[in-house]
Amino acid sequence: MTKPLSMSKTRVLAFCRPYLVPDFQTMFAGTQDHFAVSFLTDGRGTDAQDTCDAFYAAYAAHARCDALDDGQVEDIRQRCRLMRNLDRDEALRRIHAIALALGAALDQMQPDVVFCHLVDEYGLATLSHLTRNRKLPFVAYCGSFFSGNVLVVQNEHGLPIAIREPEEDDVSAALARLQPQDFRMDYNIKLNLSLVTHLRKVARYMAKRVWFKVLGAVRRDPLNMHYQITPYLGQVMHPTWYPRASHYSDDWRAELTETRTILGASHWPIVYMPLAFYPEASTNYWVQNRKMLEYEAMTIKMAKCLSGHALILVKEHPHMMGGRDPAFLNELKAIPSVISVPPLEKSNAVLDASDIVLLGAGSAGVEATVRGKPVLSFASSTYWFGASGATFVDLDRIDRLPLQVQQALADFEPMDLDARKAFVRACLASTMRQAGGGTRWPIMNKDDLVHVLQVSAGAKAEAGGMPPEPL
After folding, report:
1. Which residue blocks in 321-363 are alpha helix, DSSP H?
2. pLDDT tens figures, 238-253
């Protein structure tokens, strides 16, 4: 007979990338009274159990995993930035192999809850699907837009776990931090436009490609199960992608006024379309309609659909400077009603000049809501969507965008102070405090870690083996 949860330790499977194992071990240190933790990773070279031998055995045998249906496998293939760039049969072979390896680990470890970092590639997405099929709680986390916290989600689509009731002081402090005109969340990434820095990043990328091949050979991991994804990350890779002034307006405010006059657009609304960091989890996974996986093509389509009905302020993501093909930026800029705002311009300044915002899961949705702007979003599972009152954009019907813009503006009522606090409180409800000590990934406060895992495992036990319903 199984002991009640309160009388036994919660069994946790903690899955992470090889280079994050030390951070995860540090995070769980001192929790042995609460958890029996099994660490698992997808690459050799650490003291954690890894999936490599099981993966390569299944890969060599061309084995299939019956625990995933064809629809799940295809979703995993398309959303992973590596898998969708491989030959389809090769990608399916790898997905089935990792599914069998992870399934064997789940059978062996028998966890009450699965814990990992943010889902952003096929191994983690496969683990999320397998966990859901087994009716197990799944808890993933990443850095939060709200400084000093981490965001906690319950599936690959970034569906938040509302796990705490934030203190009033925390709500007020978070809201106050968003108010200044010059606010920008930089996630501790330096913003530097110099050509020398750009070329250094290109050289670093090329060196990593060589190093990871050597590492794969040394560790008997010829497919580089994790590191082969490197060419498909959002990063500086090409010397010719250096961001030039010609990609953006030299005076976007003046160009906005001039464009309005030229197009006779005195009554057109101004739509702000902040460009996303891509490819990355918030677009690959948090946007459930897979049409957005063709990010650049869909962005062009939406801008062209709005052109003739609205003036469009497009701003490159500052962390994508030098990491995106300039041809895309030039094609956007060539659309008659598009004004390309320089990437280092503050988002709040662009918001203040706009009437409405169109985006996916980006943090500009939070900024827009706080600053009293209506939001259109095609990412309904993101942590801020529900509380913001945003209008959902169906990517299968982008022809309706001009009408949705008009309707959202007509129906919009700005939030008062109490409503803005309620919105921030709802956003913070799915965060936990960040602790010091992490070298490569944020570490969750131990008390909060214990709380979220015990609540998740406890909800499963109370439901008779079922994972908790979305909170």
Report:
1. 326-333, 347-353
2. 888 888 888 899 999 9
